[in-house]
Structure formats: C-alpha cells, structure tokens
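Our collaborator T.R. sent over the components below with a one-line note: 'Predict the complex.' Nothing else. No constraints on interfaces, no templates requested, no preferences about which chain binds where. So this is a plain run: every listed entity goes in together, and whatever single assembly comes back becomes the starting point for the next discussion.
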Amino acid sequence: MTDVATVQRLEPADARELAEMLRSADDRRLAVVVRGHGTKAGWGVPAVRTDAVLSTARLQEPIEHCAGDLTVTAPAGATLAAVNAVLARDGQWLPLDPWAGGESTVGGLIATNDSGPRRHRAGAPRDLLIGVEFALVDGTTARAGGRVVKNVAGYDLGRLLCGSFGSLAVITSATFKLSPLPPASRTVAIAVPDGAALGRLIAAFAAAVLTPSAVEVALPGPRLLVRFETTETAAVQQAAHAETLAAAAGAHARVLHGADESACWHGHDAAVHHPGGVLLRLNVLPTDVAGVLAALEQRASLHGLRLHAAGRALLGCLLVHADGESAALVELIRHLRTAARPPAGHVAVLSAPAAVTHAVPVWEDLGGAAAIMRAVKAQFDPRGTLCPGGGPGGLA
Amino acid sequence: MTDVTPAPAGAPAGLPGSFHAALAQALPADAVLRHPADLLTYESDALVHLRQTPGAVVLPRTTAEVAAVVRLCHAHRIPFVARGHGTGLSGGALPRPDGLLISLARMTRIRHVDIDNQYVVVEPGVTNLDITKCVAPFGCYYAPDPSSQSVCSIGGNVAENSGGAHCLKYGFTVHHVLGVEAVLPDGDVIRLGGPTLDPPGLDLLGVIVGSEGTLAVVTEVTVRILRRPQAVLTLLAGFPSIDAAGEAVSAIIACGIVPAAVEMMDRLTIDAAEAAVHPNFPPSQAVLIVELDGAQIEVHELFATVEAVCGRCGAETVEIARDNTARERIWKGRKAAFAAMGRVSPNYYVQDGVVPRTRLPEVLRRIRDLERRSGLRIGNVFHAGDGNLHPLICYDEAIPGQAAHAEQVASEILQYCLDAGGSLTGEHGVGADKKGSMPKMFTADDLDTMQRLRCAFDPSAICNPGKVFPTPRLCGEVPGPYRAHPVERAGLAERF
Ligand SMILES: Cc1cc2nc3c(=O)[nH]c(=O)nc-3n(C[C@H](O)[C@H](O)[C@H](O)COP(=O)(O)OP(=O)(O)OC[C@H]3O[C@@H](n4cnc5c(N)ncnc54)[C@H](O)[C@@H]3O)c2cc1C
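Returned assembly:
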C-alpha cells in the first residue's frame, strides 16, 4: 500500500524539466503515476505502488493554432476547454466531448483515448492526433508524427500512446487535426416504446442517408438521441427526416435546440457519471445493442440494481452505470463477460469500489497479444517505473 | 543506391540448403519459387530502380502456412520481406538475396461480410477495389481510395497506411481498419482489434498500420465499410495560376467547409492527362477539382458557396459534374495523371512530400525556381486539401547523368517540404527509398525510440530489415538494468 504522506509531487515547468524529473525518479526506482487534471484518475486499476505523482498541470502554454491548416499544437497540461477557447476565435474546434471534457487535459485525453457522443462522426483522440512529443523514463525526449495532417514517415507512436494510461511514456505536447465549428445544431430526442422498437430504429438510422454527429442510446427508457450539426437548413431538414423514421417505428420524437438541447445532452452524459456503483464500458456489435440493453434492464430489475446506460448506438460502444449490492454488481459483470465474448464484444470496468475489483478483473484478458504488449512495455519502461500494474490490460 | 544492410549475424549470403529443404517440407511444391526466371517478377516493387533478386519466393495460401514459413525464418535467422501486389513506391517490398520473399498474392478470400454492422473481413491479398465491389450491391464502399486501388492489396494498404483523394474528409487506412490477424516475426499468430471497438490493452493495431511490413506479416484484415453518401457533387475549375487556385482552396476552408476531396493539377500534368485519357479539362494554367458529399440538402447548400468562392478567386471556367459520367471523366483525368506523364516525357520520377497547406504557395514557388535552374520539367499534381505534393520530375534516361540529376531534384524538393514544417512522405512510405532522409525529419532519439517498438516485435531483426530506418538499433541493449544516456556516453553530463 502506498503511504499518501510520502508521495512526492513533481510539477515540472516544461518538457525538459519533466524529462529530467522522470529520469531521476527512474534512477531512484520510484514508481511514477502521471496526472493531468485527474478527471479520470479513478479509471482503470490504480498503480500497485505510487511513490511520485508527476503532474503536467504547469505545461499550459503555448497553444499554437494554425487555422488555415486546421491544426493545433498544445502542451500536455492545457485543458480541452482552454484549447477550444483559442480555436473558437477562428471558428474551429477539437471535436472531442468526453465526460468532464472541458477539464480534461490534452495529455489525459490521449492517455485515456476517451471520447463522447460525437465519436460517432468525429472519432476518438487516436483518430485526430497527428503528432506527439513525449519523454521516456530514461530522460529521452522524442517526437513522432508531425504537424501536417497527412504523414506516414516513421512509426506512429502517438497512436501507441493513445489509451496507454501513462504506462509507456509521458506526453508533453500534441498536435491534432481540427474541424470547423458547425453553424447549427438540432437534436431529435426519441422515446422508444420497447427493446424491439429500439432495435428497429437503430437499424433504420444505420441504413439512413442522414449524416448525424451523434446517435446515442440511453437507459432508462430506452431513448435515442440523434444530433445533427451542420448548416441551419440541413440540420432542420435532417431532424425532420429523423422524426419520420421515429414515427415509422411507433416512437415519439421531439426536436430540441438551444438551451433545451444543451440541457438534454448534459443530462445524458451525467446520467452514467455519478459517484458510487460501477461504471462499465461495453463494446458490442451495433445489431446487438438493443438486445444487450434489454437483457441488462431485466437483470437489473431482478437484482435490485439502479441502472443507467448511454452510448454510441451505431458504434456499439456503451457506458453502463449500475449501483446496488456489491455481490449483485460482481454477478452483473461476470454475466456480461460471458454474454459478450471477444470478438463479438467485451467489457471493461472503468471504475468500481474495491469490493468489486477484488472479485472480478478490471480489464479483460489480453489473449494471445499479452506477450507482445508486455514486450512493448519492457522496451519503453524497462524497470516498470510508470504506473506499475496500472497500464491497460493491467500491464505491469 | 541499393544499399542492403548486412545479414543477421551468422547467416551467409544466399539461402542455405538446409533452409531450402525445410521450406520444401513446410509448403506444397507449387508455393515455393526458386528458379531465376520465376524470381524476376519479385525483384522490385513499383519503384523499379531499386532491385534485388530474392533468395526464394513463397506464395502461402493460409495463415498457417505463413506462420510455418516465418517460424522457419526465425529458426534459421533468415530475413524475410512481405509483399502484396508490388505497387509500393518506396521500395518497401524490395527483397534481398539472402532472404525470403513472402508474397500474400494467393490469400485473396473474402472471409466475412456483415453489412448490418458495416464491416468486412478479408485476406491480405484482396485488392482495395475488390472490397468495395463486394459491398457495392448493398450501397456500401470502402473509403480509402489510393489511385492504385484496382491493383494494390489491402495488406499493402495496411503496411503503408495508404490514403487517397478522399482522405481529407474520411481519413486514411488507419481510420478504417478495425482489426488484423498477424504473424509475429517469431511465427506466433496474434489478433488485434476486431469488429467491436476499444479492444483491451495497448493499441498495437494503430502502430502496425503504417509500419511498412517491419513488425509483422498481416494475414487478415477487418475493415469498416461506409454507406454511399446520398449526394456527391464535383466541380472542375480552371484558374489563371496555381496561386489563384491555391487561394481558392484556402478560402473554401476558411468558410468552414471540409470537402471530400480537393485536388490540383498544373498545366504540364493537364497536358499529359489530355494526351492520355482526354478528360477535356479547360485550357488553364491550373485546375482544381472539388468534391463535396453527404446529405443532399447540406451538399447543395455548401456547393453553392464553393462555386461562389471559385468565382471570387478568379476562376476562368467552372464546370459542375451533374451526373456520374461527368464525374467519372473528371476523376479519370486526375487519376491518370501519374501514368500519363509517359506521354510528355520518356521518364519521370514521382516524389511524395507534404507541407502545411498554408505553405503551399511558397513551396510551389521554390519548385518553379528549381525547375528553371535544373532545366528539368516538373509537373505538379497534388492533394491540395492536405498539402500532399506529388511533383513529377521529367527526365530522359538516354541522356547521360539525367536520371541522377532528376533524383537530386526530387530530394531537393523534399528539403523544401521539410523547411516548411512538412513531412518526407504523405502516403508512399519511407521504405528503402527515403530511409536515408529520415534524420532530416527526426532526431537520433526520435528514431531510436521508434525502434524500441521494432525491438519488441522483432528482436532478431529479420522482419523486412533495412527499411524505414537509416541505421538499425541493436535490440540487445534494452531492456537492461542500466543504459547510459547519449549525453552521458558522450561525456557531456553525469547522472545526479
Ligand atoms: C500508379 C500508382 C498510384 C498510386 N497511388 C497511390 C495513392 O493514391 N495513395 C497511396 O497511398 N499510395 C499510392 N500508391 C502506392 C501503393 O499502391 C500503395 O503503397 C499500396 O498500399 C501498396 O500495396 P501493395 O499490395 O502493392 O504492396 P507492396 O508494394 O507489395 O508492399 C508495400 C509494403 O507493404 C508491405 N506489405 C505488403 N503486404 C503486407 C502484409 N500482408 N503484411 C505486412 N506487410 C505487408 C511490404 O513489405 C512493403 O513494405 C500508388 C502506386 C502506383 C504504382
């Protein structure tokens, strides 16, 4: 166990100092955990040991926006909100909307590869990252990718760092490709009568010629939220089209915009992000989404669990929050893992109380790729200095 | 020019008899080629001036056969090179006399199609266009569209992270590959990713894509397919100068529009295309092809803006393709540009570099100066939306010294790209061709760090060695208990 009082705080002022601190910690065999703003600090498995917490909070400047090139380069400690405030002056943005997104730092976004409803069209950090600078535990500073949107020179180590949970290297700055800010937005909120109708509606949206920026399912409900972010006329017309699809499936739809629309999206995100209980990420095939959600609801009512779900319907990526007796939560996770087996699906525990994480593994089995992933970890962090035991898949 | 890094320690040049014998055991007789005449086809990829005769060629039909062959290579320390359909333009599939060439050309099955969930599972030898063909009846397509799409393999696309004219909006191969099955350099078979997103562990899929066959042999690919957009509108505009066309591109982007494609051609490449496929392009100094796609209403609304912008920026002609025939004619002109250069010059050298889009005018000006100074004609055809240049340097092999001169000119253009903050390659890869230039773009530490990944996958350095990196990293060094920092080794600093 880590004694909180003895944990060192490292707050480097720049990338050079960060690399030096890292090297010194590695030399002294300290276990280092990297922190941005801590918005996802409870995610995954905590490191088995933490001697030092390295914060990127002071790496905030400069945010270099090249509007004509649709790119931005920002230091690891800059928050998404700070970056987007700069980009907005020229009508652009980094279209990532993870939970607590504004407060997430650039480094944290990459390390968790976290995204939100807009992943449907815009993708996750790994899809938008075009260049990265980082420090290795031996004090080396290196760069991969570049500042141009198209580039295949050398290995794309930036993508390797996406979702690595700070277990390979410490990101010091990153370059992303950007999008223009959409001029208008409409959201069609659809109350769906039952699971069967939900399945039909998801299939209808998958086959439709519409170009939504987000297609979300939610429990309780079920509900569907379909967002159109484009020109005013196109948003209005596409929303009307979505309404007719909903009506054809026997569902009731409402078109939201302005303050109602924002409130609706805030509520949707917040529903699965409240304290207590377990937060799970389920990845299934889109055609299985409705069935999985119906089965979840049934199980939850049987075991007295409070259940919320929100997710990308057409990507099959769902966040599920469940609260109740630990034993029932453990059973739920076990059940989901037997029902959704790779490659048709998988289940990760993003956060859970100790009583749960002691009983079920947080990460799914890495399967045949475990050995090569360990070899990669050993190359980048030979002494296991970074986030020991807390890497994705529990990489030591 | 053809420099081959030394064979792994202990392995003699040419393939040892014991290895040949083991190969004959592992594969059916018709899957092994070793007669000189049979090896000719495999001497080079589409970068034909780099050539070597491979020690032998194998044509496995299954993953198990690939794994068996790779295990043998590993046991005998024989370097191997994977090859798709040999259309690469950087010598990535250049074989070696002391090594084995593994052609994936016989692995051409489509293993699974799931239209509802929008993915297809294919073997690596399936061509890019065949994926689209198999899902086209369902109104779907595979988005990355390299000009070579009818002949290049999906395995090669994965290795090169290939792009196409439409990657401005839709991204590259890496954005459309959901999973792979791959044979590691020790013969182990692994799966990374698959039809469901967010697979556990490190994103090794994201680095295998674009690794130019140096980390593993890909034996199966799961790709995402997309629904055809409801509307596609294409415009062909003629401009009095490249600069004016460039301004139009900037203005379109400043309007908040991300077209599906924005391509530019200059007079020389227009002439070549006209001579070859008669696309009937306007007699301007530069043409711009702009394509928008998406929902009908949105496309029509934004298209009006694009038209207006072109007019404001001095377009001499604006032609709108209202149907597929017109659209195909425009694209035929663009896609034929490379091959068509043969109509205006006996030989030409295709360069591939990237600049930040806003630096295009300045870099193109430098290229024009170079054209004047060098006495070689340089055609320009490029993906203007993302700053990916493809200068075509014309020369005549029959004139002594001109080929070498063209190569110098090509490498000077690369320097301009780097000076402007760009990249050595936007889509053709580093391969054997540009590895010597990598230190111009990356520091020794950058390259050494990239090679840590290589050491994890291929510690015995047998998987397409001698490509991408100018000097191999000795994998024995790490992981180790202690490694001197380069600064320390140079005696410049001590540890505290
Ligand atoms: C006329 C023409 C136009 C072109 N246009 C474009 C374009 O628009 N955009 C673009 O991006 N490229 C373009 N290219 C380049 C080329 O077509 C691509 O790089 C393509 O992806 C190569 O595929 P291939 O099957 O021919 O691969 P090959 O040339 O056989 O091999 C290329 C590299 O991939 C590796 N490789 C091949 N298969 C595998 C496998 N299964 N596992 C591991 N490694 C493997 C090889 O070792 C080699 O390093 C063009 C080429 C030509 C000749």
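Summary for T.R.: Chain A has three domains: 1-181+365-396, 184-270, 278-357.
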